[in-house]
């Protein structure tokens, strides 16, 4: 379709006239018509190529049009396109077995959902039923999804206009050494003080009222905040002490983003429930779920679980999930994520600190990194204010535009650029994209003193 101006115009007008978009003032957006995608690249109708450094919404772990995933979906569509959840399905069972096989500890059963938000909804519902308690604690600077309870759990501005949808949620501060809520100066201090704070919140909210604590194992959209050593183990210990269910939200970081099947493996902890979506099948067909510990699963052996979805464990989605496991194993995806993260991304972006005064900090792991942009390294004033919009956000918009002009589609949020390319990106593409971001940072440097 490249160069087909009439086709592009039709896509634009259908979209503008009839598609109602997420998280937007409808008259203020201008969605890019996308004509095609292949591997780590997608194209607009004019034929401009964009190297996708955000993996769409950090879900396209195996890239566009992966032949194994496409074939698996086509094959499944040819044999049984759908089946309702109360019947047993070969491909649904196979994917559940594969997920249980790589999940930590005794997390051996899977409840499938349509995506990440409903995975968190159902995890919370299970925790409430098992504990007989109602309250849930979640972090400021977090995103857990757009549905009623999930948006209440969310600790970012997307919650504000949606309050109160689930009033039994209280927020706490997680570790974030660069902008520590606890005035810490070392990772050890940050771990200790963040855990003391969390314990205070538990006690003051009333431990016997708290059903669950939900934490993104590495906070995603709100900053690629990698927990300091000992923090998640401390959360696990607090949950054990107070009889609270520990839910790890791995919707963004599960399935290889950190070079591990589940991100908790990088920190040596076993939650009671893990929620996943996105990378389980790169989003080719909507799929999410909750991986459930034996203790919680066995509670529901005799108590009926009151929850369900018509498309729970949809065969087309599960077929793409099974194919994902095959590709990960055959192509050594986890090892290549760790290798490219350590050998290519980390040294490259760390070297930028010497050249770009706008770069306050770089942090991350595997194929998941953040560049925190500032006006001043000394004061750490963000390049744009928290939740900036319009003219206030202009410096970040200029940086993003410079990346796009160089053929790289960046993930930006507030004052940060995140680096989250498909896990199958070639080393050459990766270096090319990093060079484009390096060049775009000179735009940010103009605002930094
Ligand atoms: N949890 C996390 C950590 C996420 O990043 C997201 C989506 O970005 C969600 C939950 C919600 O997932 P979904 O959009 O599939 O409902």
TrEMBL record:
Family annotation (InterPro entries): Aminotrans_3 (IPR005814), Aminotrans_3_PPA_site (IPR049704), PyrdxlP-dep_Trfase (IPR015424), PyrdxlP-dep_Trfase_major (IPR015421), PyrdxlP-dep_Trfase_small (IPR015422)
Record's protein name: Aspartate aminotransferase family protein
GO molecular function, one term: transaminase activity
Keyword Transferase: yes
Gene Ontology cellular component list: cytosol
Highest taxon above the source species: Bacteria
Keywords per UniProt: Aminotransferase, Pyridoxal phosphate, Transferase
CDD domains hit by this protein: OAT_like
Leader sequence residues: none
């Amino acid at each position: 379709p490249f160069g087909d101006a009439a086709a592009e115009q039709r896509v634009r007008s259908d979209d503008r006239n009839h598609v109602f978009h997420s998280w937007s003032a409808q008259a203020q957006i201008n969605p890019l018509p996308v004509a095609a995608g292949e591997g780590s690249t997608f194209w607009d109708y004019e034929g401009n190529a964009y190297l996708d450094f955000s993996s769409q919404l950090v879900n396209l772990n195996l890239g566009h049009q992966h032949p194994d995933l496409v074939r698996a979906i086509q094959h499944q569509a040819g044999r049984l396109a759908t089946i309702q959840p109360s019947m047993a399905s070969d491909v649904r069972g196979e994917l559940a077995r594969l997920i249980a096989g790589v999940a930590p500890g005794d997390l051996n059963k899977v409840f499938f959902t349509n995506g990440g938000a409903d995975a968190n909804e159902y995890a919370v519902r299970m925790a409430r039923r098992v504990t007989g308690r109602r309250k849930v604690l979640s972090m400021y600077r977090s995103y857990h999804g757009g549905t009623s309870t999930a948006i209440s759990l969310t600790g970012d501005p997307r919650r504000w206009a949606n309050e109160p949808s689930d009033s039994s949620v209280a927020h706490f501060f997680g570790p974030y050494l660069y902008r520590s809520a606890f005035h810490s100066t070392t990772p050890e201090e940050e771990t200790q003080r963040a855990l003391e704070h969390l314990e205070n919140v538990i006690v003051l909210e009333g431990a016997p009222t708290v059903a669950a604590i939900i934490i993104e194992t590495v906070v995603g959209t709100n900053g690629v905040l990698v927990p300091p050593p000992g923090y998640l183990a401390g959360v696990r210990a607090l949950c054990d002490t107070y009889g609270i269910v520990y839910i790890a939200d791995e919707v963004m970081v599960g399935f290889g983003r950190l070079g591990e099947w589940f991100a908790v493996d990088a920190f040596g902890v076993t939650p009671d429930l893990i929620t996943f979506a996105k990378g389980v099948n790169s989003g080719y067909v909507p799929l999410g779920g909750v991986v459930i510990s034996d203790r919680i699963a066995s509670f529901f052996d005799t108590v009926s679980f009151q929850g369900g979805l018509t498309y729970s464990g949809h065969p087309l989605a599960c077929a793409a999930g099974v194919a994902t496991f095959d590709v990960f194993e055959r192509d050594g995806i986890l090892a290549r994520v760790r290798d490219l993260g350590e050998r290519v991304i980390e040294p490259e972006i760390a070297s930028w600190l010497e050249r770009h005064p706008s770069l306050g900090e770089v942090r991350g792991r595997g194929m998941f990194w953040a560049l925190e942009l500032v006006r001043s390294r000394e004061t750490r004033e963000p390049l744009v204010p928290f939740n900036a919009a319009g003219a206030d956000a202009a410096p970040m918009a200029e940086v993003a535009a410079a990346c796009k002009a160089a053929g790289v589609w960046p993930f930006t949020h507030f004052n940060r650029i995140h680096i989250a390319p498909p896990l199958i990106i070639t080393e050459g593409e990766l270096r090319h994209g990093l060079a484009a971001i390096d060049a775009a940072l000179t735009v940010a440097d103009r605002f930094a003193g």
